Amino acid sequence: MKTVKDKFLLVGADFAGYPLKEAVCEHLRKKGWKITDVGVVAGSDPDKDTDLMFHRIGLRIGSLIAEGEFERALAFCGTGMGIHIAASKCPHVHAGVVESVPAALRAITGNGVNVLAMGAFYVAPQMGCDIADAYLGASLGSGYEWWHNFYEFHKLAIDELEAFNYEEYKANGFKVKHLGDYPLKLETKPEPKREVVVKPVVKKPGDSEVKVIR
Q1: What predicted TM-score, i.e. pTM, was given to this entire model?
Q2: Which residues are part of the catalytic machinery?
Q3: What does the pLDDT average to over 92-102?
Q4: Which of 96, 134, 201, 209 lies at a 20 to 30 A Cα distance from 173?
Q5: Would you call 188 exposed, middle or buried from its count of C-beta atoms within 10 A (0-12, 13-18, 19+)?
């Protein structure tokens, strides 16, 4: 598998997502990322290559994740919605659409998203670059070590979704088969402890005293 740790990344865009994809890929290549592009590239012709419709590219991206060839992917279309829906039709794909850095961080740290989609109609190029940096620089649970059971709770959700079978779910009265349970409650991140160091004042000969009148 081509991993994020080794700076391998899969990308794909339709014609609407192409400009944003190009800006983000240029940014990432400067940082040493090795990118495989399975969508629209310079010179693509929508009249000649109908395989470049958003959902067909989404399926192409999803299949490479499903087959274990890539660990993560970035997908781009006009809204990010259609291409991520298509990718999600493939097994083992956990896709999400984001338009901000906080959402990108939570997509990976809380949901283990392996296909992150953006919409060129709504995400500016610089924001797209910031989103990519945040997403690729984090992993499940990272930054939330202070939150009791945060990793375990979200990993359980991913594992149950991986194991999900609709027919079994239906036969079980539409109840999810639990693979475990971890309690989780909302917590506030504790403030870091700050140590105040007071340096003694040393009077030098000839220093005048200053009286403070209250």
Answers
A1: 0.87
A2: 77
A3: 98
A4: 96
A5: exposed
